[in-house]
Amino acid sequence: MKITIHSEEELSIVAKALLQEFPNDRVFCFYGGMGAGKTTLIKEICHHLGVEDTTSSPTFAIVNEYSDAEGEPIYHFDFYRIKNLDEAYDIGYEEYFYSGYYCF
């Protein structure tokens, strides 16, 4: 699915719509250049999931963990620095992706 967002005001609407459209999905991938707004959209999605933590880009950490309204983890990845598949295996991406928790 390709979604084009034209303004920051649309982010909350799109975030809510994504969660409603895919209620059983837990792994979402966002593609775009640096500064495109991926983290800003994920911040809005997390807000709709009840995250009270400060959300930020995990560029250097590769993965940030937040807690939703029920205390369940939400994982926010940034694979920008990942150069090959082995590096993704090294961070244990499979454990995250198959955990049943939200992964962005």
Summarize the structure.
The chain has four helices and three strands; from the N terminus they run H-H-E-E-H-H-E.
Q: How big a fraction of the residues is strand? A: 5-15%
Q: Number of helical runs?
A: 4
Q: Please summarize the sheet with the most strands.
A: 3 strands, mixed
The neighbouring-strand order within the major sheet is: 1-2-3
Number of strands: 3
Helix content: 25-40%
Using only C-alpha atoms, the radius of gyration works out to: 13 Å
Order of helices and strands: HHEEHHE
Calculate the mean pLDDT score and round it: 93
The secondary structure category is alpha+beta
N-C termini distance: 15 Å
Describe it for me?
- The chain has four helices and three strands; from the N terminus they run H-H-E-E-H-H-E.
- It is α+β, with helices and mostly antiparallel strands and 104 residues long.
- The protein has a three-stranded mixed beta sheet with strand order 1-2-3, with no helix packed on it.
- Helix 1 packs across helix 2 (38-48).
Name some characteristics of this structure.
104 residues; alpha+beta; three-stranded mixed sheet; 4 helices; single chain
Describe the secondary-structure layout.
Elements: H1 11-21, H2 38-48, E1 63-67, E2 73-77, H3 85-90, H4 93-97, E3 102-103
Parallel strand pairs: 2-3
Antiparallel strand pairs: 1-2
Helix pairs in contact: 1-2
